[in-house]
Amino acid sequence: MEKLLALLKDGKSRTPEMLAAELGVSVEDVKRDIEFLERTGVIVKVGFSENGHSCNGCTGCGTGKKTCAGCMPEGGFKNMGYMWEVK
User: To the nearest 5 percent, what fractions of the chain are helix, strand and coil?
Assistant: First the structure.
């Protein structure tokens, strides 16, 4: 679990499948460990959302409307995986 926490601390977004590949374990093992760490308050999942995103460079993002093209990563947020904040 220490190796998993080290990966989660680096600030990169990853899917459970990516984490499993980096750690050399099964996806089920990663999901189980992440669930345990979330449940015990060690980590908190950081969500990406196309709505509610705010920035200072446009008029659409801060108003609760869909994120503008200038603020959206190519392919949208859905392909970015997840990030966890280690408490």
Answer: 40, 15, 45
Q: Which two tokens stand for residue 42?
A: 């060690």
The SS3 assignment for 8 reads helix
pTM of whole model > 0.90? Answer: no
Under 8 Å between Cβ of 51 and 32: no
- Distance of alpha carbon 76 from alpha carbon 73, whole angstroms: 5
> What are the chain's domains?
2-86 (1.10.10)
Distance CA 35, CA 15 (A): 14
- Alpha carbon of residue 54 to chain centroid: 17
pLDDT-based confidence at residue 29 (cuts at 50, 70, 90): very high
